[in-house]
Amino acid sequence: MAALRSPIRAISQTGPLAATEFVSLLRGVLDQAYALKNKPVEIPKQIGIAVSGGIDSMALAHLAHKLSSFKNEFQVTDFRAMVVNHGLRKESTDEAESVVEQMERMGLHASLLTIPISAFSSCSHLKVEGTARIERYRLFARTCQQYGISHLITGHHANDQAETVLMRLVGGSGTAGLAGISPVAKLPECEDIYGADDIVVLRPFLGVFKNRLRETLTTEKISWHEDPTNKNVGLTPRNAIRALLTPPPLSKPTPNPQFLPKALTTTSLLNFSSSIAASNAKTKELVDWYLSRCVLRHIHVSNVIEAYIPLYLLGMPLKLLTRVLAHLAAVISPMDRIDLVQMSRVAKNILETTDPLGKSYSYVNNDIENTGSSTPNEGVERPETEKEVQKRKNKKDFRPHVGKIGYYGGVITENNIFWEAVYCKPAKNRVEGVLLTCYRQPYIRKSAKRQTDAPEVTVDPNEDPNKWYLFDGRFWLRYSGDTKDHTEAFWARLENGYTNRVFITGTRKEVMYRLENDGIQYDVTTDLSGKQMLSRLKMRFKGEAPGKSRTVLPVLCEEESNPVRRWKVPYRVLGFPTFGVGGDMMGQWEWKVKKQLVVGGVVIGNIPITVGSGKTLPL
After folding, report:
1. pLDDT band at residue 125 under the 50/70/90 scheme
2. Full-model pTM
3. In sequence order, which residues have a C-beta less than 8 Å from that of residue 543 and are 6 or more positions away?
4. Rounded CA gap, 27 and 204, in Å?
5. CB neighbours of 378 closer than 8 A, spacing ≥ 6?
6. What is the rounded CA–CA span in Å between residue 143 and residue 138?
7. What is the uppermost EC class here (predicted)?
8. Which among 383, 364, 376 is positioned nearest to 313, based on CA atoms?
9. What pLDDT, in 10s, does the model give residues 214-223?
10. Domains defined for the chain, CATH in brackets
11. 246 burial class (0-12, 13-18, 19+ CB within 10 angstroms)?
C-alpha cells in the first residue's frame, strides 16, 4: 500500500495552535515517514528545527519547547534549533544572534549557522534566493550529521503550500510538482554529501494556516522578525504569487471577503494539491503492483537493472508502463529528474519488440492489441523477401542475440540510460515475455572535436583519506585501507611524484587503452599473471556487467608523471573498486550504490526475484 504523502490537516483553522494539537501533527508526518520506509515507527531521540526567526519557525520552536512540559510521545525528545545567518542584509547577523538567544531562553539547544558571503559573489540577484536555499540545506545536513540527527522539521505552512501549487501551475509542472510541498521528503540540495539521504525533512504545519501561527505567537507574547525582502514582488516569483494571494487591507470589516476567483483561493489550491497527491499515491501503488509481478534483478556492482516483464502486463495502459520505467530510471540515471516523455518513447519501443519467428510485424501490437490473446496469432502469415529481412536486421535500433533462443530486441537511449528490450519465448519456469535491461548510457568518447562526458573524481591525499566520493551520481566510494601510513602503492606513487594524480572515472576507451597490455592484479592471494587475471575479470563482466554496462563502471586510475612514450595516453588502471579487483596497487575500497531498487518494501539485489510471490527465478 503506497503511503499517502499529503499534509495532515489541523483540527481547527482558527485560534492559536495548542501543543497537544502539535503533537498529533508531528506524529502524523512521522508516521508517514516510517510508512515510506516500511518500518515500525520509532520516536526520535533528537529532532532538528530549521529556524529563520520568522512567524512559522518561531511558532515551531515554541511548540517544540512546550512538549517537554506535559506527558506526550515527544516529552523526552531533544530538539535542536538550527539558526541560519544568510548575511544578505545589515541586520542579518544581529537578528540571527537574537534568535539564538531566544532559543536558549526557551530551553532549546541552538546552533548558529553562517553562510559565507562568498557563496553569493558569483550569482545574480535573481539567483540569490536559490543559492541561499542550497547553502542553507547543506549547512542543515552537516549540522544534523554532527549531532547524529536523522529528522529535521521545518515551518512550511498551508499558505506556503498554496503559493507553491500556484507557482508550479503557472510554470507548467506535471503531477509530481502540482502535488505541492511534500510533508515528508529527503533533505534536498545535498546529493553529494554522504549520509544526507538518510536525513528526513518533516513538515507538520502544511495543513495549518499562517494566521494561526501568528495568533500562537501573539498569545504567548513571543516576538519574531519580518524579512522586508519578502514583500518585494519584483525580487522572486514566489513574492509575486504571495502578493497575489494576500487579501488587500479593507477599510471596513467584511465577512468572507472575495477578492479572487474561487479556484484561486488558498483553500481551493490546497484541495487541488491534495487530490493530485492522492492520485500520485495511487499511481505509486499501481507501479509497485506491476513490478511485484515481474522478475527483477539489481546488479549492484555495475548498477544494472534487469526486469523480465510477462506478456500479459504489456497489454496494460501505456501510461502505466511509462511510470514503471520512470521508477526504474530514477534508480539508474545520474540525472535528478526523469523525463516522462522520454520514458513514453522507451515504453513504445518495448511494445515494438520483434518476435523470434522472423515476422516483420510488432509481436505485442498485433497479438495483444488486435486479438487480446497471449499466444501468437496462428492465422497471420506474412512472409518476407530476403531483401526485407536484411533491411530489418540492419536497422540500428535492432540487434540480433545469439544463444539457446534466437530473438531480436529493440535498443534505445533516453534520459542518460541505455534501454534494451528483447522478446523471449516460454521456457522452463518462465512465461512468455520481454526482458528489459537498463543501465547508464555509455560515455561519449574523447576526440579532437569533442570532450568526453565521463565524470572524474580526484582523490586528494591532503583531505580525509576515508572521505566518501560520489561518482556519476550512481556510486559512493571511499578508500577504507590504512589511513595512517598510506602503505598502498598508489599513495606511495603520489607522494614520490611518480603520479600526477589518482582519480575515479568511467571505463572509457582512453583510460582502458593500456589494460589489455598491462593486465591487472586481481587480488593478493594469486600468482597468476596480470593478463590471466584480466581474463578472469572479463568472465565476471559477462554475468555481472551485461552489455555495454562494462563501459560505465567506476575505475581507479592514475595519471603518470612520465608515461612510456609508446603509449598514447598517460593513464593507467589501478583497479575496479566495485568488483574488488586491483590488489595491492588499488588497496581496500568500500562502496555502495547511491539508490536502491525497492518494490513493496523489498530491496532488490543480485538474485532475480518476483516480489509478489517471493520466488527466485533465473533470468
Report:
1. confident
2. 0.85
3. none
4. 8
5. none
6. 9
7. ligase
8. 364
9. 999 999 999 9
10. 19-247+261-279 (3.40.50.620), 298-441 (no CATH), 456-593 (no CATH)
11. middle
